[in-house]
Amino acid sequence: MAGDSLALRSRIFFMKFSLLSLLLAYQSRSFYLPGVAPQDFVTGVELKLKVNKLTSTKTQLPYSYYSLPYCPPDRIVNSAENLGEVHRGDHIENSPYVFQMREPQQCQILCCITLDAKTTKQFKIDDDYRVNMFDQENTVVYQHGFQVGLKGQYAGSKDQKHFIYNHLTFTVKFHKDSQLNLARIVGFEVKPFSIKHDYDGQWKNENTRLTTCDPHARRAVTSSEFPQVIEDKKDVIFTYDVTFEESEVKWASRWDTYLLMADDQIHWFSIDISKYNQLETQEEAQEETRWKLVHGDAFQPPTNSDLLCVYAGTWVQFFGMILVTMIFAALGFLSPSNRGGLMTTMLLLWVFMGLFSGYASTRLYKMFKGTEWKKITLKTAFMFPATIFAIFFVLNALIWGEKSSGAVPFGTMFALVFLWFGISVPLVFAGSYIGFKKPAIKDPVKTNKIPRQIPGQAWYMNPIFSILIRGILPFGAVFIELFFILTSIWLHQFYYIFGFLFIFFVILIVTCAEITIMLCYFQLCSEDYLWWWRPYLTSGSSAIYLFVYAAFYFFTKLDITKPMSGILYFGYMLIASYAFFVLTGTIGFYACFWFTRLIYSSVKID
């Protein structure tokens, strides 16, 4: 065996609801027997393990556990899944792995399968469907899942062969609470092995005696001297061991192992450096009065005012969804144990925020002297969601064509459409009706009937130049945290520092507002009163840099091999960039809207 090249030695992987993951069906249960000391807590309670999807950071295409010919139970049962789990591609199913609490098991046989041409091809996975454990400075860091198998050299041969991990050694960790007189499961580890099992005589059933599991021959198992090669017409026997181990980890800290991320110092550092995005404004603060000269034209309705109203209303819906979700997450209501909870919360909040979306769009529309409120309501209810849904539908069709479990089922798509048409759209109409019945927002100054001519502008006030250059600053305020967000999404890690995320969200809002207000002030001082779209596009242009950074991340941090996976990556990042454009752009618009009304309300007209 070429030990280092094949690396079939024992490895520990902390189990997560991911790559070939096995989770305790009753993990949240406490094992308690009244009147008995904690060390004597009840034994023999049955623990059923469940399985989830197989994932790979190279393909980003998850597949269901039983898409590979693993040993199935007598009847495969899907667990109930929420909308968030479905969108994540989770498929929680039962498995034949059954433990008895505090009853160690050795070399339990699951089944024996004979590989044929089809199953051999299925198990020969070259796309690295694995998430590894790594050792750094003698500190063990766990990550979710374990390898399906490996490809490497064997017994000095120069040929590359595929090997399968067909023996799992489980370690279930429990913590005893002397005060509550109970014990709870707080950890779950597995060591995978590749073993070519031998047995005496002919194969009978799961009661066949395996010579490789003889306690006196245990070295053959743990040292993996005889790995199981994946070849046609080969028998593969799947087995497992179970041990129980007391742990010092308390129940409240059981998720800490999952959440080992980079040092928090880098998050604080990225907050500190954001102050360098602040521009010197001492000279800019010198008194200027030329903006008063255009007071009669500063509130001339903009071109494409309907589109601006739609985006402004959509932003209220989007902003409300993000703000409430972050608050819930920061307060701990969206625990990692609640799989899909974050996605489900965001979807439901988006739907119910439609009421405020319709209200905001029609209030602005009526200020622009608009009368067809139903038309603007339809645009608000459909334009942004329809764009996102169309891109998502195409990407989902591509995933479906790859036969990946990440594809959203037809029933779930129907549920999304129902939430959209059945709840969100009526709420948008209700909000629009209420908003349009309100008195129109009055301009702080009287608007001229004939707009004045705009004088020539300096080169640095060129719209394209000023928009693109100043759009870097909002992106620069958050790009460091963006690395952690992309890592959690595309490398299947947990993102949990929602407190930091909320701080960065506030920084993003402040940066967008400051930059656009400063630009708006300069523009008005240059007697250019067409300010409505300039702040929107200035802060919204940060979405361009977001997409460019996503491309940089793709080529430098990810190891995606299939073209289809690349299409999915850039498709989803296009959705994220478009949403970021709407979010940051409207922040800039509302900041300038408030600013212009404030300064012109103080102007005294003779």
Automatic annotation (TrEMBL):
Q: Where does this protein chiefly localize?
A: membrane
Query: How is this protein annotated for GO cellular component?
Result: endosome membrane; Golgi membrane
Q: What is this entry's stated membrane topology?
A: Multi-pass membrane protein
Where is the signal peptide, in residue numbers?
Answer: 1-30
Compartment(s) of residence: Endosome membrane; Golgi apparatus membrane
Record carries keyword Metal-binding: no
Q: Which GO terms describe its biological process?
A: protein localization to membrane
**Database matches in InterPro entries:** EMP70 (IPR004240)
Alphabetized UniProt keyword annotations: Endosome, Golgi apparatus, Membrane, Signal, Transmembrane, Transmembrane helix
Q: Name one Pfam family in it.
A: EMP70
Which positions, given as ranges, span the membrane?
Answer: 315-334, 341-361, 381-401, 413-436, 464-487, 494-524, 536-555, 567-596
Q: Which family does it belong to?
A: Belongs to the nonaspanin (TM9SF) (TC 9.A.2) family.
Instruction: Kindly provide the name given to this protein in its UniProt entry.
Output: Transmembrane 9 superfamily member
Instruction: Tell me the organism's taxonomic lineage.
Output: Eukaryota, Viridiplantae, Streptophyta, Embryophyta, Tracheophyta
